[in-house]
Structures are given as C-alpha cells and as structure tokens.
Amino acid sequence: MLLRPRSIVSLLLAAGWLAACSGSQSRLPQGAGGNGDSEYNTEQNRGGGQGRLFSEQGLVLGVGKNAGGGGKDEGAALGVNAYLWRGALDTLSFMPLSSADPFGGVIITDWYQPAAANGERFKATAYILGRQLRADAIRVSIFRQVEQNGQWVDAPVSAETVGEIENKVLARARELRAQTAAS
User: Fold this and answer.
1) What is the tens place of the pLDDT at every residue in 19-30?
2) How many distinct structural domains can be found in the chain?
3) Shared-domain flag, residues 100 and 172
4) How confident is the model at residue 108 (pLDDT cuts 50, 70, 90)?
C-alpha cells in the first residue's frame, strides 16, 4: 500500500503533536490514591521514556526501553511488593499453580478439589497491586463450582472466605518481612 504525500504529512504532524504532549507530567489527584510524591508517581514507576515518540536516539518504538545499553536493566526486579508476592504464593501453595506473573503481579491457580468436599472445586486469582506492603495492595478472587448432573456449575463464594485468604496473605507477608529484618 502506497501512502500519498498528503497522508505522510498528516502522519508527521500527528507524530509531532504527540511528541509535544510527552513533556506533561501526570499526577495522581488528591484523594484518589495519593499525593504528588506517591509511590505510583515516581520517575522509576512512570517509566522514564514513557509517553515519548522521539528521544535523543530518534523514534522510540518501545515504551521505557533502555536504548543506550549503558544503564542498569530494570527487568530483573519484581514489579510488585516481594513480600506480598511470596506471601500469596505460600498461602495458595495448596492449590495447583496455573500461571504466575511477577512483573504484573498476578497469580492464577488451577482448579483444586479438596478431598473432604466431594463435588466441589475452587480456583483462585491473586492480584498484587502495588510495591508497598499494605492491605489495599492485595486482591484475591475465589471461584467455586459445584457438580450438578455431571456438569460443573458456578456457585457463590462468601466474602468472608475471600477476606480470610487476603488476611492470610498479609500475615505471611508480614512474617516474611520480619524474618528478613531479623537476619
């Protein structure tokens, strides 16, 4: 497909307009999760080059990439709180693990059928939402199914059960932090 000169000019103008917008800094509004120095508004968490179309090296095709190669590789660190991550893995370890994304902070288990609960199975998804060890940085979703006429049918899970699992994750995370501080 060939682009006409008019289309190319339009694309270049749009690229220039987007590049001009990259200088603005977004701040979390007051009362919506933080203030100007929130953990979510640091230069490291914003991604540095995020939102730019052009850099010193030219056109940026990847977000937050270290094109110079001379800086440190930030891909080696967890994207979430390490204590919450380990606490969630430890708490849900009795269920078979389906997937775990330490950079996105998502743990998904496979279906687990307890021996004591015949005809009932459970699945869990844990979301670690931040880099600080706080109660609002962990969310757990529990899914329950019961067997009816040879078919698995979704069933409700009590909010107390979800709260208990989240509290166990937090307790384990605090225990891990205390063990690290003691060593």
Assistant:
1) 555 444 444 444
2) 2
3) yes
4) very high
